Amino acid sequence: MIGRAPSTTLFKLIRCAALVAAGVLLSSGIASAQLRFDLLHSFSASPSNGANSSAPLIKGPDGNFYGTTYNGGGNVPGKGTIFKVTPTGAFSLLHSFAGYPSDGDTPYSGLLLANDGNFYGTTNLGGSSNLGTVYMITPGGAFSVIHSFGGVAMGDGARPLYGSLIQGTDGYLYGVTYNGGVASSGNVQGRGTVFRMTLGGATAILHVFTGGTNIAFPYGGLVQANDGNLYGTAYAGDLAGNGGVFRIDPATFAFTVLHVFQRTSEGANPIAKLIQGVDGNLYGTTHLGGSADLGTAFRMPLAGSPVTVIHTFMGSDGSAPDQPLIQATDGNFYGTTKTGGRDGGVGCCGTVFKMTPSGVLKILHSFNQADGANPYAPVIQMPDGALYGTTSSGGGSAGAGVIFRLRLTTATGDFDWDAKSDFTVFRPSSGSWLTLNSSTNYTTFSNITWGTSSDKLMPADYDGDGRNDPAYFRPSDGYWHILTSGSGFTDSITVQWGANGDLPVVGDYDGDGKADLAVWRPSNGYWLVLTSTSGYTMFTATQWGATSDKPMVGDYDGDGKADLAVYRPSTGYWYILLSTTNYSTSNMVAQQWGATTDIPVPADYDGDHKVDFAVFRPSTGYWYALLSGANYTTVLAEQWGGGSDVPVPADYDGDGKTDPAVWRPSTGYWIVKLSSTNYVNYLYYQWGAPTDVPVNKLP
Known about the structure:
- The protein is mainly β.
- The protein is 1% helix and 35% strand.
- It contains 2 helices and 61 strands.
- The strands form 16 sheets. The protein has a 5-stranded antiparallel beta sheet with strand order 1-48-47-46-45, with no helix packed on it. Strands 2-44-43-42-41 form a 5-stranded antiparallel beta sheet. A 5-stranded mixed beta sheet has the order 3-34-33-32-31, with no helix packed on it.
- The longest helix has 5 residues, at 17-21.
- The model is unreliable at 6-34 (pLDDT under 50).
């Protein structure tokens, strides 16, 4: 059931004037969830730095990131660099390009980590013919040019652009060049090539683009699909100039044009390479085309037809999506647009976005010059779920681009915005929230007064800023009181939703990155959810569970929305209605996991962004988690805690996995077994008094 919240005593909304003025109520259109954005490094264009990156970062075997800039470095004028940066932003220069004739110049593309442990990349210019190079660099910085492109004069490629090299299953390097091949009427520099290369630099041209009724000018790189073939895009070359998609067999060099784009209905002029989704289809973007002529995102089978446009960019949601999508562990796609976003048009600074496989798009960040502008590179995702990327301009006094991190998830109990859970207790005698901050290595604390001893603590991210907000539900009158971290804990939201006897079950049920207000009514088993996307004016009502069940809300299917779940102590069964099936009872999940005296502790213990079935057994101190990442065939069993301890599972080390943890009331100690150390090391901190309530305690 879906309904509109009544204006009677069941629902009453009170807000500070400051919140209304700040536009807390959501407007219709593209959803935007501005989560934590960290500017890790601003390029300065100094000799010891770089400037203007159009390349994705790549994670090296040492855990650091590697990348390129197409300007800057130690030569004048700057011809680009190769750099290393740690996850916390410590920057070091590995190579400054010197250009023609012995070195490369202007590396637009990123690096490939090959199976020999070295990095490989291309430059647009430089080399013996000043038509670009392929180079190798070790993680330690030893550099060499392994091929100089010779262009049409030598029947070779020329001027590779944004497409990074790939290494095929046969061990060869594969790539494309924008020019070279053969000269023709109207283009003496050639219309591009597809090439193959050994790690030593021996090169073979697999295909020469000729244009005309064909396609030509490949900007992006290649992808090797699960059928063994190579797939790529070409910017133009056809008679209409819209570009298309091609396939090449690496064994026979057979070349096929799979599709030529129709500008208005499908998109035009793809710059980005393709990716293969988990469903086997190819996904990509176009620079222009679509109804607004600002680019599209599309899906196509390996056979090439039909091409399905899944999203048309309109400017307010970004424009010019010029780099590849990635499909993250949650099944959604993430990408960047070069322009559009914040200003509602096409002239501003670009975006980072999330898009479902069906094309529903959410802006995660709009760049504003000060924090970067015009990202030419795709993002990459790390195991903790964070996205890392670069921009080609903006940031710092030089405006030469940045390296950034975008944290998409809020750790349970994270009040200081470092993506790690803090140690927080609530003191009923004073209503104080006392937080020992993980961001300062537990050397500082905060004290916020909010609530009384009879209130139920409901901390969550209600304002979508990536931090937990102190909040409580008052059973006596059904009011929710939320102190927003986005306001610096100066503004509050007060909403009446629920009745005495209801159990609060906060979660993000509508997938907008903000916690919704929800209660479960044991008397009739109804879940009543007041959605943040509606400005708390619309609700859903779904019946699920029996009076003796325990509600265990969580995202069990990994779609970014909370599912309706109950645990039945009498049988140890979990019963779940999944949001991906629109809470259909015919698709419900039933799983037996636990015993009558166990304490349910559902959380994501394996880092796959899905909640696992888990229990804590007080009689033995064992934690048992049935892991969703192994399709519920693998069990995590860790002994941690005792019968009088309070389980407080959360991600205390910031690795994207929940850590088994307990709080000991008798001593006030927090004892955490760290998943990042394979449960070898632990944290042990005293914080709290015997009468305090640990905030990470599950309801």
